[in-house]
Design brief:
This protein is α+β, with helices and mostly antiparallel strands. It has helices spanning about 50-60, 70-80, and strands spanning about 1-10, 25-35, 90-95, 105-110. The radius of gyration is 16 Å and the shape is elongated.
Length: about 120
């Protein structure tokens, strides 16, 4: 299951110019959640519900200031693993407006669920 190009804003960043609540940082979020698909019948409900991830990202504009992109990404990784079927996930959070010469600056985390 993938969510690509989720756009949102958040009070985010370490630099002084990023600490103005009237100017939130624009973010682009991508999430891949990997789960076994064997045994899923055609037409059956998906085993992974991406709505909790989407809702968490949509809530970011209202959250208090966060210093690091890694904090947001780690929270999404934890949320992915709260879904029992997810065996691995990849989360990226990018700031598309940070450098003129780059499409974005950001962080990506790929993690596999620890064995039980």
């Amino acid at each position: 299951m993938s969510l690509r190009g989720l756009r949102t804003e958040a009070a985010l960043g370490l630099h002084p110019w990023e600490r103005h609540p009237e100017r939130p940082t624009r973010l682009v979020v991508n999430v891949d959640m990997l789960a076994p698909t064997y045994g899923v019948a055609a037409g059956a409900r998906p085993s992974i519900d991406y709505d909790p991830i989407r809702e968490a990202v949509r809530a970011w504009p209202a959250r208090p200031h966060t210093d690091l992109l890694e904090t947001l990404a780690e929270e999404l990784v934890a949320l992915c693993f709260s879904i029992e079927a997810v065996q691995a996930c990849r989360v990226s959070v990018e700031k598309p407006d940070i450098f003129n010469e780059a499409d974005a600056a950001g962080v990506e985390i790929f993690r596999v669920r620890a064995p039980a």
